[in-house]
Specification:
Chains A, B, C, D: GO terms for molecular function: hydrolase activity, acting on carbon-nitrogen (but not peptide) bonds, in cyclic amides; metal ion binding. Four copies of one chain form a homotetramer. Chain A has 374 residues and is α/β, with parallel strands linked by helices. Chain A is 29% helix and 25% strand. Chain A folds into three domains: 8-112, 2-Layer Sandwich (60s Ribosomal Protein L30, Chain: A), CATH 3.30.1330.170; 118-250, Cyanuric acid hydrolase/Barbiturase, RU B (60s Ribosomal Protein L30, Chain: A, 2-Layer Sandwich), CATH 3.30.1330; 259-372, Cyanuric acid hydrolase/Barbituras, RU C (60s Ribosomal Protein L30, Chain: A, 2-Layer Sandwich).
C-alpha cells in the first residue's frame, strides 16, 4: 500500500422510511455530518410496493433519493441517477420492514480496526443493446463489470468476493422494435421472459468473473434451462430504467479497515434454515435458534434471494404459490422466506428479493449477511 | 379403570388434498380399513382459499367430507355436519401446504404403548342466541362445553389439557335483525367485529374452564380491550354456518394409550422462534435450528395462531400488513409465521390461523405440536 | 314435422345463488314442478370466485348441482357430470351478480306461441388427446360436435344458429407427460398457453361448422396469431376437468315453439356500447340509453365475451390491465364490460367471460341476448 | 365589470401520463408556451395505484408535479404544494386511463367567445383541528371555503355553481393522540371512519354554502347516518397530507369568457346510465347510446363519484363487492361505473372516485362533465 492509496473504510447505515418518498433518516445523517453525500456509493432497499411491473414505489424512492443527494451535491438528479446504483426490491410482505441501506466509503479513521475488512466496489458496463440481452454477450459484459468492480474495491482474489449485486437492462417493447428494425433479433420480446433471461445472464456473468464458469458461448443455451448451474454469490435484478449492467460488489480486502465482515450461503430451498445459521456462524453469530439481542445488534444488513419452487412442491408437499390468481407468487415466497429469516435474526429489516434464477440452487436461493466483527 | 371403559387410543392422519374437493386420501384410508368412518371425531385442515368472508374452499371441503362420510355411514350429510366438528382455516400462503388432519379414536390396540397418552374429547354448547354473542353468556357457554369435552376425553385435571379448538357462531345481519325484532340488543351488528368478539369470548371461555380466569361478568368489558388477558391453550375460529360453540379438546389422560403426546407454547410475537423450539423440546424434538428428518417424521400435526401486530410494528420495525389494500393482513401474517414454523419443522403441512385475539400474547399467538414419543 | 317429433319448447330460468353451494332456487323449481330434472339440458352461470386457476367456486357449484340433480334422477353425480354441460365463469366483479341459467327442454305446451322459436342442442366430441389440443384435429372435433348439436336442436341452416358455447379440454402437466411418453408432441406444455390454444381452436371449430371458415389445416398456424380471423357466434372456455369438447348450441328452429328469441353481435372493443344496443334492437328492445323496466323484464339471459386489449390501449388511451400485479387482467375487463352492459340492461345478472381469442374482433368480443318476443 | 377586472378564461388540458412520475406532457405545454406555470390553479387526475391507504402513486405524481412547476416558478416544491390543489384519485381499473387535467386561468383572449362561461375558483379553510373533523365545525369550515371559492371565481348565485371538489383532512393516529392529550375528543380515532366522516362533513359543507341545507348543528348526527341527505354537486376526498379543507369550485359566470360549459347530475345507482345521458344532454351532447366522435371530442373532462351499495344489492340483485377479501370494494365499483361511463363517452380518460357518502343518492353518486359549447 502506497501513500497515494490510504486505507479505506465502508460504512453501512440501515435506515427506516415512513413511506417511499421519505428520505428523512438519510437527510438527518447528512445534516449531522455522519455521512457525506459524496461518499455514498450505493443504496439497496426494500419499498412497500407489490414488487411487480406496476410497482412505482421504487421510482418514487429513487426520485426522492436523487433529489436529496443532488441538492447536497449541486448536481442534477437525473445525472446522478446514472452514476449511483440504487437497487430496490418492492414488496415488504409479512414481517418485512421498509428500509434502505446506504453504503458509503471514505478514508479509514485513524483508529479504525485493521483489515482485511469488508470492501465495496462498483462498476457499470457499456450500454447493452437489446440484441445482446439474455445472450452470451451480456454474460461477458456483466463479467467485465464485475472485474472492474473488483478492481474498484481493491480485491484481486475472486475467493475474497462475498456478494455481487447486479442490476441489468431488459428488452422493452420499444427496444425490441428498434432492434428488429435494425435487422437484429432479440432473445425474447416478451418482457417477463426477457427480464428472467437478463437475470440469468447476470448470474452467469458473475460466475464467469469469479472463475466458477468457463467463457463458453455454448453455455448460452443453459440460461433458464440448466438450473443445476448457479452462482451462490450473485443477486440480480432487472429494470426497464437501466441500459447498462450496474454492479455493486462486496468482499474482503486488506486495503480496507473497519469492523465489517460478510458471509454468503446458498439456500437449498425455501425452508433451508440451516443455511441461514451457517451464514451467521461464519460471522461468529449463533442462531440457537434465534440470535441474542447482542448478536442481532451486530448485524448491519441481510440480503436474501428466493423463488417459489417451479415444480410446485417444497419437500414433497404441494404449495399453491404458482397457481394463485389473487397474490403474485413472488409476494408469497418473499413473505415466507422473509418470515423465516426475520425470525432467526429477530429483525424484519431484510432485503428479500425474488427472481433467483441461477442465483443459488433451483427452488432455493441464497442469504448474505453483513455484520460487525465481535 | 373398569371393564366398561377399556383404554382408548387416538389416531391422527395428516392427509394431502389436490384441491378443496379432494377427499381421496381419506377415502383410501377408509377403503383400506386403516380408519373406520364411525371412529372419526374431528377434522382440522387448511384449504387454499383466501381465508376471508368470500372463501368458499371451506364450504366445498366440508360438503365433500360430509358426503364421503355420510355415504359410508348411511347418514345424511347435513345431519352429520351438525355432529362432526370440521375446523378449516383458509389460506395456504407461502410454503403452507393444503392438508387436513383426521382425528379418530377407538379402543386401544392390545399392544399399544401404555398411557398417559394424548386424548381427544368434543362437545357442543346449546345454540348461542345472537344477543349472547360476544358477551359473558357466551363465555360461560364455551366454558361449559370445554368442561364437557374434558369429560368426553377422560381428563379431570385442567393442567393436563394441552389445546382447545373452539368454533363459535357470529352475528349475521339476519340474526341481528331477528334479535332486534325480539327486543334484544347485540354486542355488535358489524359482522367482522362480531366475529372478533366471538373469538375473544371463546378464548375467555377456555380460560374460565381451565381455571385461568374468574367467572366475573365484569370481565365482559375486557373482551377486545384488555389484551394482557389471554389463554395460551385456546384456538378459536368463527363461522356463519354454526349456531352452537363447537369444542375439540386435546390433552393427556391415563385412560388413553398410544405414542402421541402434545405440547403448546405461547408466542410473544411473529418472530418468536424460541417459543417454537420450546414446544418442540417439550416433546423431545430438537430444533438446532431445524428438526432432523427423523424428528420431523415424528411430528403428527402442528397448529399455530398468529396475528398482524395491531400496533404496526414488530420488534420496533414498521410492518405494512395493516395498511395493505391489495393483500389482507391475515394472509400476510400466515405467510410469514408459516414460513418461520415450516422452516423449523422442515414441513409446510401446518395449520396456521389468524384472528388470535386473547389466544396468546398481544401481537403473537401460540404454537401447538402433536408428536410421537421417541 | 311428423307425430314422432312433436314440437319442443325451451325454458330458461335465471336463478340467484347466495353462495357457490346454494342450489336452493333450482331445488324450489323442481319441488314446485316448474322444471323437471330430466328436462335440464345445460346450465350456464357466474360464480363469485376469481375466475383463475385457483377458482374453486366452479367446482363447488358443479358438485352441488350434480348432487341435487343426481338425487332427483337417482343417478350418480359423477356420471351425470359427464353428460350435463355445466359452463361456469368465475368472477362477479363490480355490479355482476352471482346467478345461473338453467336451460330445460320439453314437449311444447299446447298453447305455446308458434315457432320458429329458440332451440337448444348439445353434443360432446370424442375425447381429444393432448396431442390434438390447439391443433387442426381439435378444430375438426369441435366442428363435428357443433354439427351434432345443430342436429340435436333441429337446426339445418347455419344462418339460424345464434350462439355456440364450447367447453374444451386443455393440456395439463400430466397429459403432456403422457403424450411425450407415447412419442407424441403437444402444441404447448404451458397450461395457460394450452388453454388459450384450446379456446382458439374452439372458435375456429365453430366457424368451420357454421361455414365461415374453410377446412384448411394450413390455418392451424393462424391460431393465436391471425386475430383478424374470428367467429362472432362462438363463446369458448376450457377446463382441466373435461376431456371432450362439450357444445351447447342455441338458434332458431321451426321445430320449436315458445316466446324465446336470441340475437348476437360482435363487439369491436370494450367500449362498444352500440353493439349492445344493436343486439337488443334485433329483439325489439330499445336501449335509449337504458332498457325500460318492461323491456328489461323481457330479457331471459345475456352472455358476453371480452378481453383486455393486448395492445395496451382502448381507443388511443393507455389502459393498465395487463401490467397489474395486484388484479388479474381478466377481472379488470369483466368488471368494466360488465358495468357497461349491466347499465344498458339495468340488470347485473350477466354471464361475462374473458378469454375471447378469435371470439369476436381483436380487443373486443361479443354479446348475446335471449329475450321473450314482444 | 370595471377595467381592473378584465374578463378571464379557463383552460382545461387533459393530459396522458406514462407512469405516475411522468409529467412530460405538461412540461411540453409549458415549453411551447401553451400554458404558463403561473396560470395553473388546480390539477385533478387519476393515477394507476390501488386507491387505498398504501397507494403511493398519488404522492409520487404530486412530488413530480411540484418539482416541475416549482422549477419553472423558482419556488420550493413543498411551499407550492400548500397553495396548489392537486386532487388525485388512485385506481385506473378496467378501461380507465391514467391522466390528469390541468386547470389554468388567465385574462381572456380578445377573440374569446363571450360569457357566461365556465369559471374556476379555489380557497383553503384554516387548518381544521382533529377535534373538529367529522363535526359541525368542519361543515362550517368547508362552507366558508366554498363561499370564498365562489368569490374567487366571480360567482354570486349558488345556482350557477356546477361542481365543488373538496379535499379534507382526516384524523391520523398522531393527531388523535395530540387531541386527546390536549383534553379534546375526536369524532372517531379509526382512520377509515375518520376519512368517511370528513368526506361526509365536506358534502354537508358544500350543501350549506350552496343553500341546500340549514346551518343546524343538530344535523351533525346525520353524518353517515341520514343517507337521504346529499348534495349532488359535491365531490369530496380526504388525505392524510392536508390539514386544511381545500376547495376547487367550478360554475358559470358572466365575468368569464370562452367555450367551456359544465353540467352535473346525481346518479341513483351504479347502473344509472340515464343520468349520464342527462348530464351530456344539458351540454348538447347526445348519447344514443354513445357519443359520436365529434361529440366525444367536445368533452374536456368528466368526473364521477360512485360507491358500492352498502345494502349488498343493485336493483335487487346481490353484488359481491363488500365481501371480497381479494379486491377492495372501491376498486370494483370504479371499474364498473368507469366501464359504463367510458362506454357512453367513448373515452376512458375519466376521473372516477369512490367514497361518495352524501355526494349523490345512497348507493349512487354523481357525474359531472365539462365540454366545449357546440
Amino acid at each position: 500500500m502506497n501513500p497515494a492509496n490510504p486505507p479505506r473504510q465502508l460504512q453501512v447505515h440501515r435506515l427506516p422510511m415512513a413511506h417511499p418518498g421519505d428520505l428523512s433518516a438519510l437527510a438527518d445523517l447528512l445534516d449531522e455530518g455522519r455521512v457525506r453525500a459524496e461518499d455514498v456509493v450505493a443504496v439497496i432497499g426494500k419499498t412497500e410496493g407489490n414488487g411487480g411491473v406496476n410497482d412505482f414505489t421504487r421510482g418514487y424512492f429513487t426520485q426522492s433519493l436523487m433529489h436529496l443527494l443532488g441538492a447536497r451535491l449541486g448536481r442534477a438528479p437525473a445525472e446522478l441517477q446514472r452514476e449511483l446504483p440504487c437497487v430496490l426490491s418492492g414488496g415488504t410482505e409479512g414481517v418485512l420492514s421498509p428500509h434502505y441501506s446506504v453504503f458509503s466509503r471514505a478514508e479509514a479513521a485513524a483508529d479504525a480496526p485493521p483489515g482485511p475488512a469488508l470492501a465495496i466496489g462498483r462498476a457499470f458496463s457499456a450500454p447493452t443493446p437489446a440484441a445482446d440481452i439474455g445472450r452470451w454477450a451480456q454474460v461477458r459484459a456483466v463479467a467485465g463489470a464485475v472485474r472492474a468492480a473488483m478492481a474498484d474495491a481493491g480485491i484481486a482474489d475472486p475467493a475474497e468476493v462475498r456478494f455481487v449485486q447486479v442490476k441489468g437492462p431488459c428488452v422493452t417493447g420499444a427496444r425490441a422494435a428498434a432492434a428488429l428494425a435494425a435487422g437484429q433479433s432479440v432473445a425474447s420480446a416478451d418482457p417477463n421472459r426477457s427480464m428472467a433471461l437478463s437475470r440469468a445472464a447476470g448470474a452467469f456473468g458473475v460466475a464467469l468473473a469469479l472463475g466458477e464458469m468457463a467463457d463458453d458461448p455454448a453455455l448460452e443455451s443453459a440460461l433458464l434451462t440448466r438450473f443445476d448451474l448457479w452462482c451462490g454469490r450473485a443477486s440480480v435484478s432487472t429494470g426497464v430504467e437501466v441500459e447498462a449492467n450496474e454492479v455493486v460488489l462486496l468482499g474482503h480486502s486488506a486495503q480496507w479497515r473497519g469492523p465489517l465482515r460478510m458471509a454468503c450461503e446458498p439456500m437449498a430451498d425455501a425452508m433451508d434454515l440451516p443455511a441461514v445459521a451457517r451464514a451467521l456462524a461464519r460471522l461468529g453469530l449463533r442462531a440457537a435458534p434465534q440470535l441474542s439481542a447482542d448478536d442481532s445488534a451486530r448485524v448491519a444488513a441481510a440480503l436474501v434471494k428466493c423463488e417459489p419452487d417451479r415444480r410446485g412442491q417444497v419437500r414433497g408437499a404441494r404449495h399453491t404459490m404458482l397457481d394463485d390468481t389473487d397474490i403474485n407468487a413472488q409476494r408469497h415466497i418473499r413473505a415466507a422466506v422473509g418470515g423465516l429469516v426475520a425470525g432467526t435474526l429477530g429483525d424484519g429489516r431484510l432485503f428479500v428479493s425474488g427472481g433467483a434464477e441461477h442465483q443459488g440452487p433451483d427452488g432455493g436461493g441464497l442469504i448474505a449477511v453483513i455484520a460487525h466483527a465481535a
